[in-house]
Design brief:
single chain; about 375 residues; mainly beta; two-stranded antiparallel sheet; 4 helices; 18 strands; about 10% helix
Length: about 375
């Protein structure tokens, strides 16, 4: 694991409230959160990229070179209504999940094209891109139970999928000194709407599907001092488009020729098929495992967070009643602050004091009415 140079502003954001946090922890040590039934609204957003700052990717304006370690970007959002009554939990929400897996060559070639520099001539670029996303609305139903020292909730979700796509392209791309791009690549993609080839849907394939998911939350009180908390989101999931648009084929510019006015032309570049096919999309699971050591003044925390192939490591402190947390993502130097009460839950994680430079942003807010 590569530890980046410490960002002074990010570290300051984390530790400035330390004295206040310690005082609050001492005052709250004798208070325990009282579990009550509630109904409320929530919104959560998790975004990370090791390619470029988030703003440049969203705006599609790549004004600086991508990272030498460019490989992954994801953005997951969900908002809706949630509640709990006795041991039953529920939520009605809309979610959006977007993932990109790439490499340095692909990101750099795209950056050069977007900034009108032209792809580096006489150099082979190993192109490898996999992007997939889905948008859905649905219902989760869960049940709380206790088994010995474990308190847990298992939640089942059913989703109506409004949009789904999975596109893969890999091959070799080169450019000459006149910025004429050549190469060979293989494309395969499933889609309900947008696709690389801009294929139109004349009612040939479905534009809506369905999905299933399983989430598990638990707290294991190992002994008087140690506790393990877990949040396993999408630990099982399957999003289905029974009659998906489907394209598979090859791009090859070896059929280049000089036309009558001296320009460069190509014989048909793409050869393949465009049809329909059953498609099952599985999203990366989101796993949070938090180890807690309970001391007299405060709790000490280490946390592992994993979303697909990306892992994050945290360390920090928490008030004795668990209502306040201050953590630091050690590798990305991103401070995280969270607060929870019967009325509100709030979480914020940002790796830069300047939003235009941020490559990691987690934001969550829930407002609930206990009854």
């Amino acid at each position: 694991m590569i530890i980046k140079k410490i960002n002074f502003h990010s570290t300051l954001l984390l530790f400035l409230p330390l004295y206040l946090f310690t005082s609050y922890s001492q005052a709250s040590a004798s208070n325990e959160n009282v579990k009550t039934d509630y109904i409320g609204v929530f919104a959560v957003s998790e975004t990370f990229t090791d390619i470029l700052p988030i703003k440049q990717i969203v705006d599609d304006e790549w004004v600086e070179q991508p990272s030498k370690h460019a490989s992954t970007a994801f953005s997951q959002h969900e908002a809706g209504i949630q509640g709990e009554w006795h041991n039953l939990t529920f939520s009605v929400s809309k979610r959006y999940d977007y993932f990109v897996h790439s490499n340095k060559d692909t990101a750099f070639a795209y950056y050069q094209d977007q900034s009108n520099q032209g792809v580096t001539p006489n150099k082979e670029h190993n192109i490898n891109l996999h992007l997939f996303h889905q948008e859905a609305k649905g219902l989760r139903l869960g049940y709380n139970f206790t088994f010995k020292k474990v308190d847990a909730n298992i939640s089942l979700g059913y989703w109506q999928v409004a949009e789904i796509r999975s596109s893969k392209i890999h091959g070799i791309l080169t450019s000459d000194i006149d910025s004429n791009i050549t190469g060979q690549a293989t494309l395969e993609e499933y889609y309900s709407h947008k696709n690389f080839l801009k294929r139109r849907n004349n009612e040939s394939w479905d534009t809506e599907g369905y999905g299933m998911s399983v989430d598990i939350d638990f707290t294991w009180s190992i002994n008087e001092k140690f506790m393990l908390r877990g949040q396993l989101k999408d630990i099982y999931n399957d999003f289905v488009l029974k009659n998906s648009g489907y394209s598979i084929g090859d791009f090859d510019t070896s059929g280049r020729f000089i036309n009558s006015i001296g320009g460069v032309g190509y014989l048909p570049i793409y050869s393949g098929k465009e049809t329909t096919q059953d498609h099952h999309l599985t999203l990366p699971e989101r796993i949070n495992l938090t180890g807690v050591y309970q001391d007299e003044l405060m709790n000490y925390i280490v946390k592992l967070k994993r979303q697909g192939d990306v892992q994050f490591y945290y360390a920090g402190i928490e008030s004795n009643d668990g209502s306040m947390q201050l953590l630091l993502d050690i590798e990305n130097m991103a401070p995280e602050f969270s607060y929870q009460s019967q009325w509100v839950t709030f979480i914020l994680e940002l790796d830069s004091s300047s939003s235009k430079n941020a490559q990691k942003l987690n934001l969550g807010l829930a407002l609930q009415i206990p009854f």
